[in-house]
Amino acid sequence: MVEPLLSIDRLTVTYPGRGFRAKPVTAVRDVSLDVRPGETVGLVGESGSGKSTIGRAILGLAPVTSGTISYAGHDISHARRSEWRKLAGDLQVVFQDPYSSLNPALTIETILMEPVTAGGVPKHEAAQRIRGLLDAVRLPKDSLDRLPREFSGGQRQRIAIARALSVRPRLIICDEPVSALDLSTQARVLTLFREIQETTGVAYLFISHDISVVRSLSHRVGVVNRGRIVEWGECAQVTERPEHPYTQRLLLAAPVADPVRQARRRDRWLAARTNTIPQPR
Amino acid sequence: MTDRMPPVPDTRRRSLLARVLRNPLGAICVGYLVLIVLAGVMASSISGHHPNEIFPREIRLGPSAAHWMGTDSSGRDIFSRLLHGTLPTLRDASIAVIVASLLGTLFGLAAGYFGKWLETIGTRVADLLMALPGLVVLLAVRTVVGPSMPLMMVALGIVMSGGFFRVVYAAVLGVRNELFVDAARVFRLSDTRIILRHILPTVRGPAVILAANLMAISIAIQAGLVFLGLGDLFAPGWGNLLNGGFANIYTVPLELLWPSVAIGLTCVVFFLSGNVVRDEFARIGISAAAVALEQGAAEVSAPVDDNTGAPRGRAPVAAHVALTDNQAVLAVRGLVVGYPGAGGQVNRVVDAVDLQVDRGEIHGLIGESGSGKSQVVLSIIRLLPAGGRILAGSVFLGGRDVLRLKEREMDRLRGRYVAYIPQEPMSNLDPVFTVGSQLVEPMRIQLGLGRRAARNRAMELLEQVGIEDPKRVFHSYPHQISGGMAQRILIAGAISCGPSLLIADEPTTALDVTIQAEILELLRELRRQLDLAVLLVTHNLGVVADICDRVSVMRSGGIVETGSVAEVFADPQHPCTRALFAATLDDVPARAPYARRIIEANHG
Amino acid sequence: MFWYILQRFMASLMLIAVVIAGTFLILHLSTDKVARGILGPDATQEVVLQKKQELGLDRPIIVQFTGWAVRALHGELGRSWFNGEPVIAAIATRLPVTLAIITAATILIAAVSMVLGVFAATRGGRVDQAVQVLSVLGFAIPNFILAILLVSVFAIRLGWFRAVGYQAMFDSPAGWLGTVTLPVIALAVSGISGVAPQVRGALLEALGKDYVRTLRSRGLPWRRVVYRHVLRGSMGPALSMLGVHFIGMFGGAVLIERIFAIPGIGQMSVNAALNSDVPLVMGFVVAVSFFVVLLNLIVDLIQAWLDPRVRMTT
Fold this sequence. Notes:
The complex is a heterotrimer.
Chain A (H helix, E strand, L loop, with lengths): L5 E10 L9 E11 L4 E6 L5 H8 L7 E6 L2 E2 L5 H7 L3 E4 L13 H11 L4 H14 L16 H13 L5 E5 L7 H18 L2 E6 L2 H7 L2 E6 L2 E7 H6 L4 H9 L5 H17 L6
Helix pairs in contact in A: 3-4, 4-5, 5-6
Chain B lengths: L15 H7 L1 H18 L1 H5 L30 H37 L1 H16 L2 H12 L3 H28 L2 H8 L4 H37 L10 H10 L5 H49 L16 H6 L4 E13 L5 E13 L3 E5 L6 H8 L8 E9 L2 E2 L5 H7 L4 E4 L13 H12 L4 H14 L5 H5 L8 H13 L5 E5 L7 H18 L2 E6 L2 H7 L2 E6 L2 E7 H6 L4 H9 L13 H7 L1
Helix pairs in contact in B: 1-2, 2-4, 2-11, 4-5, 4-7, 4-9, 5-7, 6-7, 7-9, 8-9, 9-10, 9-11, 10-11, 15-16, 16-18
Chain C lengths: L1 H26 L3 H9 L5 H11 L5 H13 L13 H37 L1 H16 L2 H15 L15 H35 L2 H8 L4 H38 L5 H10 L3 H29 L1 H4 L3
């Protein structure tokens, strides 16, 4: 039995309502999961399901209303600043939008150097490390003194990955990291994620709305619907033989690139739909 | 690695001052300001007269060699008085601007970044400061402090700091939730560092612009106060010259003119400097856009695929053209679309596209972002974004070349022959009109229906697109409905005037998969009922497999392959098409279960 | 919507109450200076103390304020320290003059800005450039400098208008027009320069919205889309700006009335400030504050009528 790197126990996140007389909104309800070292755990769900909020809560960017989040055995659900500072090198993030996740006014070198030197690494060593990182994410050597706007979406996402890797973390929260990318770029970035995991042993919590993206990368998968994990298990089981009706609908609704198979899936989807008529939203 | 590195714009990092100086208007403004400051510093040596020196025999004289701007009613040299008034005027105005910008920046940054109570108090205080006009507040202050100009200017600065706070605060709000600030937080950088490094730079632009404008306003208010007699009447300054001149407006009009010109010109220059700074900031944005455009152009001009190095595939449409032209609901021939690029060049984003959609057919147009598929669609309905031009080719809708139609004739075709379903449902409904009135309006114009008839038809349409409570939705405003519902309404609007061809530009991309399946089912259903032809733009091969009869694959502004869905999916010919299939994750197996081995290989 | 408007109204009432209290506090910060301001710089300390006692300035500030506030709520703003005239009466005779000029200027601003803004946004090219250049100049040149130039040229040099004085509208409409034309123009130019670009920008932004293309794709003619959909959607910010300018003109009027020797509330307040006439200054602040609240309410109501998202907030 491997000790989990991250474990979440009955996490609930409630936001105070915005504005006058507004009701509080519960984005995440009673969520439990764990991530082991070097493992990828996928979280799949539709927009507004609360999957991203789980990731933000782990990073301390969303308030933990109840439940606990433990990292390497320590409860971090209400960690103080000083504790977070120690964790900065362990816990990292790659966001969805490669356009707003890099400060447009800073060069790539500054963007990559900042977290490393802030972690106390001497300058020359940091410079060496980020040059290695550029290689690891396959960016050209002359990228360092350029600005983010000079790069395409796929390249920016590589920069964001390099930045996350720069502090040698043990867990990266990946919040829809490929959904803004074209199909071919997406495939390449996913391969990169996998290679990095194989060489560094980093663990991922991989959040996506696309069940096939999650399937290709995850060891275990959780399906999130309306703030709860409705199904949780080994990747093949959840993404190929799901038990929960919601997961089944989700799986059948995504069309496959094969007209013959898709026609069959559509019939099954129609049959499932007439059983549980969804309200038009 | 095929993500292409775009060319580097040469105006990348240059200091703001350097940018302003390179701008002709900016250089003039800076030059003028330097000049008046110098003139103020060297006032005595330039004018040659003491400002209060009285020439008793030269009262109210016009300009002369001895007195360049003439003399006032006491016989004092106006030019000398104007020069000596320069520095005090600028100094007083600067006091107000410095106070305003320091207070505004400090509290704006703090309130914007930390939020919570600082935010509440900050915005409330700013509201207070901005509730009354500055001059009204200054009158109250003057009642108490007397004619002390520096004190009044400090008060003015405090009043203006409300406006400064708002601008800084708004700029901080704009970036506070940007992901790069979140990323900095995840690296646990200190708040001071995040503010200085990541937030202050975005505030700098608006702050500089505002400070320049406030400088103009402060000069005006300072001079105005003195003019009203509320300042120290013996202190040198432009306002005092005005005050003195105003008394002699009939006898020595020039005496009033000189200070008026000095004040007006200086205000205009400060204001223009702010504009130049704003333009320079905007230009950085434009150069980024230019890069994006060049990127598009680079793609178009390079028909060779990076992945495979293969040239463009078989000429796809030619055989099809000869076959069934009379059946074609839509036929595009040799379409070229261009946008103006840098240096008067034209970037061709669509190049020689042929496309045909037959009766009752659902035709998929697939390609990655930037391949030009949306440009094709918008050319067909002649609603290209500003700057876009159709450079060559023809678009036949039901046999008529729409590119030769007058705008009014085109209006009659839109909605009635060809209808359009956009990608992003929420932004495509007018937020200030009800759903119902947006459905009714085109039907009344296009079909000439009466109010009641159009209304009934709209209800029917809403029902037809699967909305359960048409009456409620009819009276709803767009902000009251969900994205999926909005897309149904847009589809209802598209079919409302009985078109033969439906053009759907990524109609499900912004929606969740479960809703996507519903919308695709609806389109299939409508096609059956209304015998529609559909041109469906998408980047998703699964959507094509699900609903389309034929498919055209687009790449870099051209169509590389066309055929029936069965054919193309079974045996894709062109390398680009194959690359698209290779990138799908449909048949990627689930990842093998977790094994500890991976980590041990690393740590052991 | 009623609750929303009421909430906004109460908020603006509260805000103004705090502003009035703050002004009262400022005016009583240094009572010595106020007394000396009345008596002149040579007054002895003894006389100053006596004056303070006479005016009640020696009592604790909180007592003074509550006394003033209670009287103010009963419509009683005291008497001028300078000539004993009741403050309410002083304001009542002068406010209509100022209000007439400001209202005329506001109407002018609204009409001209609308035409220029729509013209610049839809025609583009030369018209657009001209409007932009004019708006920069109009905004940058202080309105009293403009007023001085207008007087010098049109009243003194050409003699087309009266340089000074005021005639009431009901006494002689032609005379009124002759006296207010220049002041109204001087006040309106900076307003037009602020509002017209706002209209232009809002229109251009609205024209680029997705729904404009979709409406056009349904066959609605361009003109109809612009005048029915785009214009309505972009009026909100321009209207707020117009409100801001209306209030701001109370400040501008202070200078303009001096130049044209118009017996309005602005002239009154300048003299009050010079004479350290605290009750009159307070009366001026209260009068302007009243219009701030009124105008915010009107703008909110129109805003709600224009935009359902505002209308439906609770």
